[in-house]
Every structure is written in structure tokens, then in C-alpha cells.
Amino acid sequence: MPTRITQIERRRSETSAPKGIGESGERPDRSRSDSLRRDAGIVPTVFKVEGTLYLRDAELLEKICRDVGNRTKRPVTLELAGLSYLDSDSAAVLCRMKREQNVSLEGLHLFIEKVVELTEEYEKATKYLPKPKLPV
User: Which of 7, 41, 89, 106 has most Cβ atoms within 10 angstroms of its Cβ?
Assistant: First the structure.
């Protein structure tokens, strides 16, 4: 299934209260900055991502989010409830977007959420691994 990225409009009332686990078992990934955004009344730009997400698509999504965030000066949220598959490379791009652009990820299904969590933990662990020695 191809990747579809759609910008959706969210009313201010939809961003004012934190969401719990939805009827479909989705868990929003909320950070402290998300609650500060809601308290400040800032409505984020929301992109709905559906289908499968591979590296090329994730890199395109990263570029779109960076461009829109820089242009609008509003936070960016990715609604991932319609995402059926992502590989570890695209999960690494999502983690980088969270870390560098403060992009929020919402609607993660359990499998997708675990892939993202494992990728984040792997990135943390690699900082402590010894560097390979170059041949002399």
C-alpha cells in the first residue's frame, strides 16, 4: 500500500484536552511540550500519514514537516493511526523528527509504537558502544 500524507485541520477544542487510549487501542505519544502547546492555545499543523512508510517516504515527510514548521512557526503533529507498516530506517527518521524538530507522534498502534520505542533505545545505546578501530 502506498504512503498517503494529508494535512488535516484541527479545531482548537480538539487540541485542548489530552486524549487517552482510543476505541481502536491507539495510544497517543504525548510529551511535556504538547501540553504546553495546548495551554498556550497554539494549534499545531497536523499531517495524517496512512499506508506503509519506508525510508524515502519518511525522508520526504521529514522535509515537509521541516518546511511547514519553518514557514508557519507552528508545531507539527503526525497522526499515525492509519499507518500499517514502517521499517527500522523510517522509524529512525521519525525519532530524529521528534528529537530535532519537536514533532509530536499521535495515534500509534502497538506494533508501530514498539518499533519507534526500540529505535529510540537503540540510538541511546549506540552512544555507549565502543568505536570500531580502523586498520592501520
Answer: 106
